[in-house]
């Protein structure tokens, strides 16, 4: 059944280490727990915030009326199809850490997500943001999802029921809140050692080019068409640019880093200053990849 807890401090639950106290938290440990979610959210009031691994989130400081929804839906990924077909279907809970899934797929000789080695967060968050890296994206392998909505309840939705794009996922015909409970993936078959070699190479390159051990939320801006946000930030002088205890990374300019004790006000001001400078210089109006809440 659903578990309701006191609201957590979002700074302790987000990878950027920012954010004040939420109003409450609702935890799901089974897909069927979602049956009571609508009633619970109505009783608690406030705006729901689905929070998995806490990456890609810039939470504002101070008290908030957010109700954190935690889909703690884990367990071992499950192979649903025999290995005598071109694609192997795998079912995985939304609360499973993305890196656990990527590593597990490699041990099974299942291909399609090796490029996501080192990407933080959970499976649910990776689906909702259509996470991608080194040419692999969640949408490449995504076959269907188990989803909850306030009006429709819990249903499986196939490829014709959702739209995907660059860092974008949207269930068709659904506005407002939705909650991903599980995903099914169609993966190719390849030698485990070859998949692991690719993962090691990607991780090595990530460590060399990204501040993966720092307190960040991942990339701040989406790449503009035929361009790179990091390059625009460098060209406008924002590599390493600091405001208080928030700074754009020296290693990768599109990563915002909390140097310790940073505030959401500093982060938002630095982001907006960069956006305005880039628009003046190049005409590009960068779109946020990081999600600002509330």
Structure notes:
- With 294 residues, the protein is an alpha+beta fold.
- The chain has three domains: 3-71, Uridine Diphospho-n-acetylenolpyruvylglucosamine Reductase, domain 2 (2-Layer Sandwich), CATH 3.30.43.10; 78-209, Uridine Diphospho-n-acetylenolpyruvylglucosamine Reductase, domain 3 (2-Layer Sandwich), CATH 3.30.465; 216-293, UDP-N-acetylenolpyruvoylglucosamine reductase, C-terminal domain (Uridine Diphospho-n-acetylenolpyruvylglucosamine Reductase, domain 1), CATH 3.90.78.10.
- It is built from seven helices and 20 strands.
- It has helices at residues 37-44, 98-107, 123-128, 138-141, 192-209, 229-235, 264-282, and strands at residues 3-6, 24-28, 47-50, 57-59, 66-71, 78-79, 88-93, 110-111, 132-133, 136-137, 142-149, 153-158, 162-165, 168-171, 179-189, 216-219, 242-243, 246-248, 255-258, 291-293.
- Strands 6, 7, 8, 11, 12 and 15 form a six-stranded antiparallel beta sheet that branches. A four-stranded mixed beta sheet has the order 1-2-5-3, with helices on one face.
- 41% of the residues are buried.
- The model has no long low-confidence stretch (mean pLDDT 94).
Task: Write a brief structural summary.
The chain has helices at residues 37-44, 98-107, 123-128, 138-141, 192-209, 229-235, 264-282, and strands at 3-6, 24-28, 47-50, 57-59, 66-71, 78-79, 88-93, 110-111, 132-133, 136-137, 142-149, 153-158, 162-165, 168-171, 179-189, 216-219, 242-243, 246-248, 255-258, 291-293.
